[in-house]
Amino acid sequence: MTEPRDATMPGPVQTDTIAxxxxxxxxxxxxxxxxxxxxxxxxxxxxxxxxxxxxxxxGGGLLALWLRPALSGADGAWRWVAAVAGGALFPxxxxxxxxxxxxxxxxxxxxxxxxxxxRQIESVRAVPAWSAPLHLPLLLTSAFAEGxxxxxxxxxxxxxxxxxxxxAGLLIALVAARLLVxxxxxxxxxxxxxxxxxxxxxxxxxxxxxxxxxxxxxxxxMVAGVVPALASSALAAAGLAVVIGGWALRLVILMRATYTx
Length: 261
What we know:
Layout: H1 17-39, H2 52-67, H3 76-98, H4 107-122, H5 128-131, H6 135-158, H7 166-189, H8 196-226, H9 231-255
Helix pairs in contact: 1-2, 1-4, 1-6, 1-9, 2-3, 3-4, 4-6, 6-7, 6-9, 7-8, 8-9
C-alpha cells in the first residue's frame, strides 16, 4: 500500500490487488470454518476432508498476503496475531481428519484470524472507511454470511449427510444482520465527517449490493422453502449470491473507498 501521490490534498490510498484478494479469500475461508465448527454442536456432520475448501481459501489468502504484505502503516502486532491464528488452523484441521469431533474447536482460531485482520485494517486511521467503528462488525458479519453461503453451495461435497434445515435459517439471519450493519455503516460514512468521494463510492455500491448480495439470496431461500423440487439448486444459488456480494463489499471498501481526510 502506498500513500496518496499529492500529500497536500485528500486522496485515495492505493491498495495492492493481490493483498486485497488475500484478505477477502482468507476471510471467507475462516467464515466457512467457523460455521462448520459451530455447526458441529448442532449435529452438522462434516465428511472426511470437509474442511479442505475452507483451508484452501485461508491458505491461498495468507499466501497472497505473504507475497504482498497489505496495509503498510497498520498495527503490526495484529498482523502477527492473524498469522499465528492462520497457522494454527492447519494442524488442527489435519487432526480433524482422524478425530472428526475436533472440528468443534476450529471456530476459535478462525474467529481470531478474522478479528485480527479486522483490527489490522481498522488501525489505519487515515482512511475513514477502514477506521469507522462499524467496519469490524461489518467484516465479521459478512465473513460469517459468506461462510454460511459457502456451506450451502458446497454442501454435497463437504457434508456426509443431507443439509440440515437450520442452515437456510442461518443464512437468512446472517444476511439480514449483514444488511443492517451495512446500512448503519454506510449512513455513518456518508455523513459530513467522511470524504465526499468515499460517500459517493458507498452510495453507488449500496443498491446493487443490497439487492444482489442480500435481497436476492433471501428470495431464493424462500423459493427453496415453497418449492421443494428446487430447494437444492435454489439454496446453492442463494449461497453463491451471498458469497459474491460479500467479496464485492470488501473489495469496494479495501480498494475503492480508500479516500483520506
